[in-house]
Sequence to fold (634 residues):
Amino acid sequence: MAETRLKLEPEVQTILGYIDEGKNFLLSGGAGSGKTYSLVHTIAQIIEENPTAKISCMTYTNAAVREIQDRFNNPNLTVSTIHDFLWDSIKSFQGELKSTLITLINSEDVKEVKSPDGEVEPDFFEEKEIQYKEYTIIKEGIISHDELLVLAQHMFMTYPKLCDILKDKFKFILIDEYQDTSPSVIEIFLTHFKKSNRKNIIGFFGDAMQSIYDDTIGNLASYVAANDVTETRKAQNRRNPKQVYELANKLRTDGIVQEHSTDENAPNMENGSVKEGNVKFYYTTDEERLEALKQTLEWDFSNPKKTKILNLTHNLIAPQAGFTALMAIYDGDKILDYKKRITDYIKKNTITEDFSELTFGQVIDKLLEGKTSDAQKKPILPTAGMQTFIDQHNQLFETAKSYPFEEFRRIYVDKDALLDDKKDDENDESKTGSKRDNLIKHLFKIQDHVNLYNEKKYNEFLRKTEFQIKSIADKKSLRDVVMTLQSMSDSTIEEVIEYAHNNGICRKDDNLQSFIEKKKYIYDQVIQLKFQEFQNLFSYLEGYTPFSTQHKIKGSEFDNVLVVLDNGNWAKYNFQYLFENNGTESVRERTQKLFYVCCTRSKENLVVYYHNPSQATIATAKNWFGEDNVQVLL
Fold:
């Protein structure tokens, strides 16, 4: 055993020492340090030294689960997402689940778990089984991700026996990317587990500097200070070239200073030395020149596996990827915002009048009746931003006013319905439980069916469509239909839906009909757009383009990375605050972590582009990137 340990990297040897002492541990390491590498070797050594012990390894995404599963084939190792682990731990205790869920629903202090029927009686779930799914219907006993975390935390707090059971079951519980974990989950393992006298080890792997999501633990500093967990740090960098990790070191705030790996087989090593790499900061002082910069770089932007352009938001990507009009419908409709303003006004003022026979426009007129002063009218009229949008889309507003109010008030649209389930490249797997709405799903089916035909997956194509092949003539007819569909980029989405329906490529099903009935306001706008608009969206979401949001990219790596610094009207981030070291501290810190994540994706070349920065920003860029690496685009 001792000989085997000596072959392991020092950080893993330190972890194994903590395990010998019965201590919970934390491995902190910067981006590219090989934390997953350390995790895998820790698991392997635990298995070797504890052949009968059961191990649970949890991580944040299904992709990470598969990566770890692929390395082991051991019946004592369970690899899952944190949500799946928690559900598997509590799902058998239906009585306690029901009791806890009722307590949470009726608690004034718990906002995450609420029934649309308000408070519920103790026997509310007596005839139902509590289930965990991708969606929430509380009155049917169906919970989703957010409710599960609150429910599990409360159950482990209320029923210490659960802690006994779990600690008996798993002698080792390892959590990868711990910084992305909910504080409720950490509380289960480091606070509620103390109620049990059973012995087990909890291990955490991650990087506080890469905590870029809301409502996560971020760091374990308080638990380290309380000796609930013992930390070791990993300073080596296995991914990034020298110039990139030296830039990253200037962005870190926790004292970790990365250096090149001692492993000559590390990806960033070449002929016994660390790769030098390239970092550049380009800026413009007049007009925006992103496209000119891309041409200057001469990177292969057609290969999304090697090259990525990182923007802060999907809205910033939409004009570059060619789906601006779809984004405007799903994430820019101020008429729907105005509708919500009206419904909120009715609710706030407890107006009980029956509006069921009125249109949206008639309800507005009704609410304004008798209001003479500007102060009385103001909460009913559109805000300045809404009015500007209405003035620019007057015909759309007239259409909205003609809809029955009871129908229009129920229309809700979210950009996730358009953009959920994005891939980094075309080989990524689609996740289950996509939030896409039924119209976008239908359009995806059309494009998927065309792709199946083009990829010569004829059996799967025929299984998913209504096309019948009984003769050579049928084959020719099918080819003509698919070729016609491919040539319909300039046709409207409505024309493509009808053509695919009439020719057996993709029938209009109940889900689409339901969408049309319930969200005709959205449907009527989308079907007027050219099909090219959707095809561009499809290419983006399926990973055929180099574009990605800066949040989505965490955990990935690419040869060439172009980071576009644009706040995109998102108040949570401000790149000027970061470079000038001013502004709201929380915004600056959040931006700094995101920028750190973006920069450390690069395995070869990193370019940062900033349009029209201040002189203070340019000065900081020269300090971080080096004087010669900061250039103005003319």
Summary: The CA atoms of residues 259 and 342 lie 58 Å apart. The chain has a mean pLDDT of 93. Residues 438-454 form the longest helix (17 residues).
